[in-house]
Amino acid sequence: MKKVEYYSFLLFVILLISWEIIARPMSDLVLPTPTVILSVLWDGLKSGYFMSHFLHTSIEVILGLLIGCTTGFVFGVLMGEIDFLRRLLYPYVIASQAVPKLALAPLFIVWFGFGMTSKVVITALICFFPLLENTVTAIQYTDSNKKDLFYILGATRLQTLIRLKIPAGLPAIMSGLRVAVVLAVVGAVIGEFIGGNVGLGAMIIASQSMMDTPLMFSILILLTIMGMFLYQGVSLIERLLLKPYLKGRRK
């Protein structure tokens, strides 16, 4: 595993050096070098210029993620358990996801204004479907032999759900959460693109209007760090939740 990480880091260094060599003869407007981008990033962090925008986008991402994933999980459990509800609501869920979120963003801004609420709603809507889909799949495809065993032992439907279906479906549910975490950053930035004067997405639009490409790249680095940090956080939670079940399987 350590060897793979070493090769991954080596590839990263090679890509950076190649980028530096290729971008040297070019204008910073077209493709700035990594050293120029890091210099702009460091100056922005040192002066505190990025901080308020980073925090604003982070709050939008976290709130949207919590609302979207919680709603998706609850509806996923209900639709996975109740066949009538799944057949009733699923076409509407698919229809809502078929519409590009970028097309819905102006409408949400009309409804909820230019503040944080519209961005949180967009983020929540984007995070909703991965959790819903994976939770429905996890609940539906629980091992039938285990369900029969719970039935023989006299477990109620609620007990079977809480003690069998949800724990057995945790890998699929957490997989949906990992996807939702990455999409949450995308959702917040889309909202800020359309109607926002605060946040990293709004800064990208501002840097575009100023034709400041190094600033744009430095903001993209911050967004990447945010997404990777959240993803690793979810991966850590997943390992902690699945640890007892993995130990049980080994025994």
Automatic annotation (TrEMBL):
Membrane topology: Multi-pass membrane protein
PROSITE patterns attached to this UniProt entry: ABC_TM1
Compartments reported by the entry: Cell membrane
Record has Transport as a keyword: yes
InterPro entries: MetI-like (IPR000515), MetI-like_sf (IPR035906)
Regions that span the bilayer: 6-22, 61-80, 92-114, 120-139, 179-205, 217-242
Pfam families: BPD_transp_1
ABC transmembrane type-1 domain mapped to chain residues: 50-232
GO CC, any one term: plasma membrane
Keywords: Cell membrane, Membrane, Transmembrane, Transmembrane helix, Transport
GO biological process: transmembrane transport
Family, as annotated: Belongs to the binding-protein-dependent transport system permease family.
Protein name from the UniProt record: NitT/TauT family transport system permease protein
